[in-house]
Specification:
By secondary structure, the protein is α/β, with parallel strands linked by helices. The chain contains four helices and eight strands. It has one domain: Ribosomal Protein S5, domain 2 (2-Layer Sandwich), CATH 3.30.230. Helices cover 32% and strands 28% of the residues.
Length: 202
Amino acid sequence: MTPARPARIATRSRATKETSIEISIDLDGTGSTDVSTGIPFYDHMLDQLGRHGGFDLRVRATGDLHIDTHHTVEDVAIALGEVFREALGDKAGIRRFASGKYPLDEALVDVALDLSGRAHVEWHVPMPECLPLGDPAFDPQLAEHAVTSFAQAAAMTLHVELVRGRNVHHIIEATFKGLARSLRDAVRIDGPGGVPSTKGVL
């Protein structure tokens, strides 16, 4: 009889003078999300990450939004990366690599990643001129910071490149959806095999 795999679930709390965050994730969920950061556009993007990743994701965050949204966006992304990495466990049997091109209307984004245990990000997504999105405002430049902070905390190699696009909302959303779908593929269990690395660990 094959032993049951451990649940790939993790929770994390993070508190600083700038933010207070609680996050939980189930990598083998149904895409159920419950996200509240006080930044509606960011909530929308994190919702895409959970839904299209097939992860059950709960995020509760409060921060110094009276100053700006930067601290909350960054700290949530770091905590999410940490909890994602914890939920992965020893990575036994996972596919590890994933890539694809992901469209949203006129925008097309290329995403490739490796759950390598080595943090490296290549971000090549120039943003057209655009006013901040939502209220409180999400500066489009924060998309890079959010994705990079997440990938570094999760210890993955990530390449993101804009193929084409004019609408900033579409570009950012295609990026988050593409990241979600790539993560969904990369964390998938291929079989009972060991850790997919010649080193034996990731």
